[in-house]
Amino acid sequence: MIFKRIKARFGGGTTVDTIVHTPATRPGGRLDGIVEIVGGEFEQEIKYVALTLVCRVEVETQDSEHKSDAEFARQLVEGEFTLHPGEHRNAPFSIEVPLETPFNVVNGQDLPGVRIGVRTELEIAKSFDKGDYDPVRVEPTPAQQRVLGALERVGCRFKSTDVERGHIRGAALPFYQELEFYPPASLSRSLNEVEVTFLTRPHEIEVILEGDKKAGLFTEGDDRVRRVPLPYDLIDSPDLERVLDDQLHELARRRGLFG
Hints:
Low-confidence stretches: 215-222, 255-259
Structural class: mainly beta
Helix content: 10-25%
Number of domains: 2
Strand content: over 45%
Number of helices: 3
Radius of gyration: 23 Å
CATH topology of the largest domain: Immunoglobulin-like
Order of helices and strands: EEEEEEEEEEEEHEEEEEHH
Number of strands: 17
Mean pLDDT: 87
CATH class of the largest domain: Mainly Beta
Shape: elongated
């Protein structure tokens, strides 16, 4: 199945058509496809052809917010070669999707707050062309999906998600996905919302839970964070919901005037 055709026209009439065969991938998976290159009106020296994964991230400063594109994985498709007029050249590719890649599709539904794409780069002699990127679809891993399902079963309701620039201790990428949930009804008097971030690793998922607490008579509203490592055998067990429910109640626990 061809998922996306990404076309670009470069100097001298050279055209590049990037075809992604993978309809949807997952963190830790791959995107496979082919880059079709067609020569233009005259012979050209191609320095390289590469693909880059790109994510749209939210950047916060002291007085404003804006969106920016962050590159986070790159695959060389073709090294230096001579492209003759009208020549057709096909270059297959397989680019690895990092484990910490955000996901933008859950149960077949697109998440509008997360845009991920693949960009084709082509350098011809002394000119360099890095065009816009077209979106790709990334689904949660099976383990992430089970955690999302467990959060729903303990009463959390999905609200929204986005990707923010910043570094979390233990993470490799310079940005992270934040999923916002309404808290369970039993905790709604203590929490405004629950924010969830996944740090996915080969042997576990660390779930970062941040609770936006409501103000009380002797306390101010604040945020509290719980970092919960979940080995995959725990994620597959019936204890997952109990562990998450306990952690949510700990987030909501209100401290008194003196701590």
